[in-house]
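Re-running Sigma-70 family RNA polymerase sigma factor to confirm reproducibility after the cluster update. Everything else is unchanged from the original entry.
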Amino acid sequence: MQTSAPVEPTFDAVYAAHYVPLVRLAYVTIGSRTVAEDLVQDVFIEWLRRRDDVRQPVAYLRRAVVSRCHSWLRRRILERRHGDSARWTASALPPPDGTTTAVRAALARLKPRQRSVVFLRYYLDLPIDEIAAALNCRPGTVKSLLHRSLAVLQEQLNDD
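Result of re-run:
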């Protein structure tokens, strides 16, 4: 009896299924749709180059997107600190209603890592273990980040 190796998903299938959620993750983290799309494209290109070495492509892609977003944010902070006058803002979206505006404003007050955790948990509906893998931290850290993030969001939304 011959056992076959597990079938690896094709690049096209993974791209089609995960490109949009990864762009949304990047957008929520950094606040720029254009930059989010660029970062996600770069991550997919890197995965394509390293595909033979990557056992879990979706987990790899999530972790890489979060990592690139945090690197991009660190660079922006340094640029601002050292005199770069260009400020990043959220890209233009259709006009939101009052609730959407309040939620976006509350999310913008969270730290990037907190925004990532909230997005991964409540938008992508990922379990704690997968979020921990994406953020390269322990599940307890994810729970703590979620707890603090939700407290900040509740406080911000109650004040508005």
